[in-house]
């Protein structure tokens, strides 16, 4: 009975192993998805972003990120308020992290 169950799951196992092996190791895929998740959350909360860079600085485990952002919404805000806007946008994601570095600046054109 157990053998039949394994045979049934074999196509799924093969697809999963190809997906992981084909695009790098599991840690790289996990970090990429976390970076994309952070990027999408920021773009949704701060639509005036003109530049965003998100880098995993934890050695590949996705526990710490460095985020650099330029946005129109930062114009006229203090650095603390800019950072608060970012952290409020990523509240649920930050709860899963060990740490985060944030660099903000208003968009150069200021429109």
From TrEMBL:
* Gene Ontology cellular component list: mitochondrial matrix
Q: Which SUPFAM superfamilies match?
A: BolA-like (SSF82657)
- So what family is this one in? Belongs to the BolA/IbaG family.
In this record, what's one Pfam family?
A: BolA
Whose protein is this, by species?
Euphydryas editha (Edith's checkerspot)
Name the record gives this protein:
BolA-like protein 3
């Amino acid at each position: 009975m157990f053998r039949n169950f394994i045979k049934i799951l074999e196509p799924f196992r093969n697809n999963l192993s190809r997906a992981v092996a084909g695009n790098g190791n599991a840690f790289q895929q996990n970090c990429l998805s976390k970076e994309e998740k952070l990027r999408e959350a920021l773009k949704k909360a701060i639509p005036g972003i003109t530049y965003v860079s998100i880098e995993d600085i934890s050695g590949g485990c996705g526990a710490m990120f460095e985020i650099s952002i330029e946005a129109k919404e930062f114009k006229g805000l203090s650095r603390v308020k800019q950072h608060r806007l970012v952290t409020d946008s990523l509240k649920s994601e930050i709860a899963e992290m060990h740490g985060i570095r944030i660099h903000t600046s208003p968009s150069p054109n200021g429109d």
